[in-house]
Amino acid sequence: MGRPKKFNRSDVLEKALPLFWKQGYANTGLHDLEKATRVNKSGLYSEFKDKEDLFLASLRYYYETRRGRLLLSAEPLGWGNIENF
C-alpha cells in the first residue's frame, strides 16, 4: 500500500489551469507544473496518467466549476464558443 497523498485533486487543477492558460499546453513543462501545484512528479503521476491527462482534467474542471458550460452553450452555437472557452 502506498503512502497517502498530501494534496487535493481540485487544488492541483486550480493551480495548473492558469499555468496552461498563460503558457499554453506545449510550453508548459512538468517542472512548471510541479512548481505551480507544489506537488512533485511522482505525486502528479500517481493522480494523472501524463501531462495530457492533467490538461484535459483541467479543462473538465473549468467546464464543471466555472463559466465553461455557459461559454460553450451560448447562442449562436459554433466555433466562437470554443474559442471563448
Radius of gyration: 14 Å
Number of extended strands: 0
Count of helices?
6
Helix content: 55-70%
Task: Tell me, briefly, the overall form.
Answer: elongated
Q: Whole-number average pLDDT? A: 88
Q: CA-to-CA gap between the ends?
A: 40 Å
Q: Describe the largest sheet.
A: none
Give me the secondary-structure category.
Answer: mainly alpha
Could you give the order of the helices and strands?
A: HHHHHH
Low-pLDDT runs of 5+ residues are none
Fraction of residues in β-strands: under 5%
Set out the fold topology.
Blueprint: H1 9-23, H2 30-37, H3 41-47, H4 51-65, H5 68-73, H6 79-84
Protein described:
It is built from 6 helices and no strands. It is an all-alpha fold and about 80 residues long. The mean pLDDT is about 90.
Search tags:
85 residues; mainly alpha; 67% helix
Quick summary:
Helices cover 67% and strands 0% of the residues. With 85 residues, the protein is mainly α.
